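Bench notes, bay 3.
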Amino acid sequence: MRIDILTLFPEIFAPLFASIPARAQEKGLVEIHLHNLRQWGIGRHRQVDDGPYGGGPGMVLLAEPLFNATDAIEAQGGPMRTLLTSPQGPRLNQETVFRLAKEPRLLLVCGHYEGLDERYRDAKVDEEFSIGDYVISGGELAAMVLADALIRVQPGAIDAESVRQDSFAEGLLDHPHYSRPAEIRGLRVPEVLLGGNHAAIEKWRRQQALQRTRDRRPDLIKDS
């Protein structure tokens, strides 16, 4: 999978070159390419934004640099699906991550300022996504969240069982986890986890996942 990211601030993306994302790239499972939008800026000052027609606060990303950047990036590696980070998009969820992870190539366009010229959105953007019902300073953090989520579900990036047991992977939150020692400060690990009965452990984990989801995210329980 190839992930291209169009941004005004490529230096923000250092975490995508560490830990699990770094190992996935070393294995050849994914490529990440960062592109600075200002490279396609207009004039001597590489302008990428201007005030909105009709007046109002803030600045708007200009259509021309966005069009030119997208065309140039697509020419580097062939067809791609273009996604825009935007508080107006549907909220990102694990189902969407699994779907997008099957795409051979994605371009993540980081929104900024008051937004971008609507003509670019209409002509080039295939999907929008939001990471929550709040506003952050720019789309870079949202793009990083999506990229990381996509990378970790690539086959071979991490253990397949870990992906299967993740929160939301099967529509539920994850079950509780424990490790050594068996007792600390008077708090014991549940006995079922110490007995070695794998069928009983699996049943307990399922029950715990269901209960935790009912308590914390009842909206995820479709049949409740």
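Next record in the batch:
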Amino acid sequence: MQRPLILITNDDGIRSLGLRAAASACAALGDLFIVAPAVQQTGQGRAKPVGSSGQITVHTLDLGGGRPPVTAYAVDASPAQVVEIALVELLPFHCRTGIEPQRTVNLAISGINYGENIGEGVTVSGTIGAAMEAASFGIPALAVSQQTQAEHYWSHDAALDFMATAGMVRQFAAWVLERGLPPGVDVLKIDAPEGVTPETPWRWTRVSRRRYFFPVAPERKSLDERARMGFTTHVDPALVEPDSDIYAVAIDHVISVTPLSNDLTAKVTIPA
């Protein structure tokens, strides 16, 4: 029986240790097809910028654990564009070079992201954008993030420990490969709290309607000066919904698992 083919991608770039942790966790579950942005693409959502060159370079990744190195592809493109290129262009090439027949991807995993993706701003996330792009091709997808301090959002800090979150990736990847996603679900969004351990419990949640990341104006000497908007996080337990992803991760410090749909229609009854 042919092993499942698992697409591993992210928005932090091909050198991300979170990407390697996800790939290593799933190596025993199927054949890996690793395609990621060439550089950091945090905050791109599902954008498809016209300025992306689409240039592809081949890398070799060491996943550790005595496993042989694996081939990976870095693309100068946004996370959503990376998924498009992976499925439409690279997959046939990857199968030919591996002397394999054309295959389909059975599962897409985006992450493990540096930083949590919770609250009403989840559509900003390139991690989620990549997963939703895969889902638009009919591929079940996981979007996995780990809460970190803000200084890690744009870095690949080797001090971060992704082991426990990687265990969750493996658990849910095996579950989806065996059973598929529940009806009406296109993506499972998984967010682990800072300090997560293998004993940290998880629970089903929904996306909070509350803002979690708040913009902070830069200090400019003049309006034409280049500056980047900063941000901070804020949580008011009295206002955050108890069944939400924000409450789970930022207040109760448990793992949040949120079923997402590419259908963004509000669940209301529309008058005839």
